[in-house]
Amino acid sequence: MLDELSLPKVLPVGTIVFQTLFLLVAIPIESYILHRAIKFDKKTSVFYAIALNVLSTVLGWNVFFLLEPILPVKMKSDLMSYVFFNTFQGNLKTNLFLIGFVIFLGTFVIETLFLKILMIILREGRNQLDLAEMTQREKSLAKQKLKMQNNNLITTILIANTISYTAISLLILARDFLKRT
């Protein structure tokens, strides 16, 4: 039983460090955009940014570890070479843009849904009290406001992810450039 819980013989320290760096870059960018666009206070926007980014990172690595065993041997070898040694082999470079785009879309969908769920959960108690005191007109205005906030939320998450992914891509390019020189 304890043998299963032991640390692996090879640990991708570089990947762990860069994943931490990516989180340290993405969280402030996304919290700033949430603060400015949706008008959350700073503490709330930082909380949402941390929750969204940590969740999407954990889910992303879980998907990676679920898909990795079923990949073809050549692709698995190329992927492990990139994760452990930061070297491209084979046709991984050509697939990297497609993989990055799929990861971006997946992260966008996960973060949008999770933010909506968090907002519903954290505001549910206040809304129950307010609904009893509202007139029909106030209820319809509240629904319109909620629809507009929903559109603004989707746009804001898209912008925040685009900017944070751009910053992360620049970090990856800088790492590769420094490695070559």
Description:
This protein is mainly α and 181 residues long. The chain has one domain. Helices cover 83% and strands 0% of the residues. It contains five helices and no strands. The chain has helices spanning 13-37, 42-67, 73-85, 92-133, 136-180. Helix 2 packs across helix 4. The longest helix has 45 residues, at 136-180.
- How many domains make up the coordinates? 1
Mean pLDDT: 82
Strand content: under 5%
Helix content: over 70%
Number of helices: 5
Give start-end ranges of low-pLDDT stretches.
none
- What gross morphology would you assign? elongated
- Between the first and last Cα atoms, what is the distance in angstroms? 46 Å
Rg from Cα: 21 Å
Order of helices and strands: HHHHH
How does the helix and strand content classify structurally?
mainly alpha
Q: Please provide the count of β strands.
A: 0
Q: How many strands, what sense, and barrel or not for the largest sheet?
A: none
InterPro entries: FraC
Protein name: Filament integrity protein fraC
Pfam family, one: FraC
Transmembrane segments: 12-34, 46-67, 96-122, 153-174
